[in-house]
Design goal:
With about 100 residues, the protein is mainly alpha-helical. The chain has one domain: Arc Repressor Mutant, subunit A (Orthogonal Bundle). Helix content is about 75%, strand content about 0%. The protein is built from 6 helices and no strands. The N and C termini lie far apart (about 45 Å).
Length: about 100
């Protein structure tokens, strides 16, 4: 948050207020969602990458944090999510 506030030339308090009032979120949740979306995109683009590589490349502190966020947001593990996307793609191709 400090890096972003310095980059934007605003105080941490102003940035915190922006997240609260405009995004109805906080910095930690916002950043976690960005990382999750990056991880999902990377899983689709690079299906041979392991979850360890994905978590490291997307800024998660460890693989277990990636798994925790997936369970909360997607209701499944990253591996299960990949499998469901693979099934969806296969069904769309056969149609």
């Amino acid at each position: 948050m400090l890096t972003l506030s310095r980059t934007l030339c605003i105080s941490k308090n102003e940035l915190s207020q922006f997240f609260d009032q405009c995004l109805h979120s906080n910095f930690r949740i916002w950043l976690s969602e960005i990382r999750l979306n990056a991880a999902k995109k990377m899983m689709l683009e690079y299906p041979d990458y392991s979850n360890d590589i994905i978590s490291a490349e997307c800024g998660f502190s460890c693989r277990t944090h990636l798994y925790r966020i997936f369970k909360i947001k997607e209701g499944c593990s990253p591996t299960e999510w990949r499998g469901s996307r693979h099934t969806d793609v296969a069904q769309n191709v056969s149609l």
